[in-house]
Design goal:
Helix content: over 70%
Order of helices and strands: HHHHHH
Largest sheet: none
Number of strands: 0
Number of helices: 6
Structural class: mainly alpha
Strand content: under 5%
Length: 155
Amino acid sequence: MSHLKWTAPALVGTAVTGGLGTDVKSRWYARLDKPSWQPPGWAFGPAWTTLYTLIAVASARTLDRIEDEDERRAYVGALALNLGLNVGWTWLFFTAKKPKWALNEILVLEASNLDLIRRSARIDGVSAAMLAPYAVWTGFAAALNASIALANPDA
């Protein structure tokens, strides 16, 4: 039985909920001092679409290969926490307009990413490798968030 039938909708829900909390056209965001190395706005949609697809497939592959029911439940819990943190960052940064809080939160998200990779690696190396770009992108996003938080201390 493939777990993709529920990981795919979970990731679509994450994308939609995160998207609802994102407003890159707000006056607040436009006024922020952002680093020159920030990717162009058009790059984020394709990047996240690719990452969410990889997360859905990698998580399904891992869940399909976990034999122990308790271990499977633990992985589902870790994935649910991760997706909640993923959405939470967007709402903290863009909706609450709290870059410093969002920075702390994205560091927890990155720890969660590494935990998912660790859990997947014990079961399926391909799945772990598929999750690696998510951790790399989140690390980059954390550096970008830190740069924005430092450049905009009153934001």
